[in-house]
Design a protein that fits this description.
This protein is α+β, with helices and mostly antiparallel strands. The protein has one domain (5-294): Endonuclease/exonuclease/phosphatase (Deoxyribonuclease I, Chain A, 4-Layer Sandwich). The protein has 6 helices and 14 strands. Strands 1-6-7-8-9-12-10 form a 7-stranded mixed β-sheet. A 7-stranded mixed β-sheet has the order 4-5-3-2-14-13-11. It is globular and about 45 Å long.
Length: 296
């Protein structure tokens, strides 16, 4: 992919901060890691964009978000819907060893982003790219498939600092909520782009796909690109709830529209739908999904 950004560990911060469309990598406050030895803890989380509207304003949700993320301490978090100031809030609520890469889905950095946060003690970015889910994927903000909004992907090739520098890809996306045609075309483009990456490396896809797993052609299109549903592959699973709750009572065995997909060589030790809340306040209108992965 010709316009991907290459990074070295030493120069990564400077290179990413200088990129015209990429939010600066930044430092953030203290949290302890909870990952089992050797496992990668990956989360996908639709943050619900920051709003002052009540109820469930960002001011009310932010402390709960902070508590959830510090408690979970993921290695990598693929986020959806985060807007720039909200992402800055999250960075200030996490630890100094977390950084992030992302850009607004329209021209400029203040629109919703597919930001990926990561623990710098465990992984280091070597390369990254953004592309848009359209017929013109390199055109910022492009939307040619009738989706309600412009949609995009951010991907990063990481080096695992605890695994002899072994590399892996993480892709993060958010498919359109209104158009099945746009979702289907988007899934096909993502599969095509994945095919162009180094297939010898493990790969993880995080995202809000806006359709239920097992119940839509988009799901099978993604699996047809050589991916496995981490929820199904997990050796252990938490209770299943619908991952979009809209601040209503949780739905046992509900639709799982937020997925983590992996390549077949990745071992999924555990998958969890995180129902953390404080006094009835959820951090988002989605529940985050977490998986514990082994790459060896």
């Amino acid at each position: 992919m010709s316009n991907s950004k290459s990074l070295t560990r030493r120069m990564g911060l400077r290179t990413v901060a200088a990129a015209a469309l990429t939010v600066p990598l930044s430092s953030m406050a203290s949290v302890s890691t909870a990952e089992p030895q050797g496992h990668l803890e990956v989360m996908t989380f639709n943050l619900r964009f920051a709003s002052t509207a009540e109820p469930n304003s960002w001011a009310d949700r932010r402390p709960v978000m902070r508590a959830l993320l510090r408690r979970a301490a993921p290695t990598v978090i693929g986020t959806q819907e985060g807007v720039y100031q909200q992402l800055l809030d999250i960075q200030s609520d996490l630890a100094p060893h977390y950084e992030w890469i992302g850009t607004g889905r329209k021209r400029g950095s203040h629109d919703e982003s597919m930001a990926i946060f990561y623990d710098t003690r465990r992984v280091a970015p070597a390369e990254y790219e953004h592309f848009w889910l359209s017929d013109t994927p390199e055109l910022i903000g492009s939307n040619t498939w009738g989706g309600r909004f412009s949609r995009m992907v951010t991907w990063i090739r990481f080096r695992d600092l605890h695994n002899d520098g072994r590399e892996l890809y993480v892709l993060n996306t958010h498919l359109d909520h209104a158009s099945q045609y746009a979702r289907a075309r988007s899934a096909s483009l993502i599969a095509e782009r994945i095919a162009g990456l180094d297939r010898s490396l493990p790969l993880v896809v995080t995202g809000d796909f806006n359709v239920a797993a097992h119940e839509n052609p988009v799901y099978y299109s993604m699996l047809g690109g050589g991916l496995v549903d981490a929820w199904d592959a997990a050796a252990e699973r938490s209770t299943l709830y619908g991952t979009f709750h809209g601040y209503q009572p949780l739905t046992p065995n509900g639709d799982r529209i937020d997925w983590i997909l992996v390549t077949p060589g990745v071992t999924v030790h555990r998958a969890t739908i995180d129902t953390f809340s404080v006094n009835g306040q959820f951090p988002s209108d989605h529940l985050p999904v977490r998986v514990s992965l082994g790459l060896a």
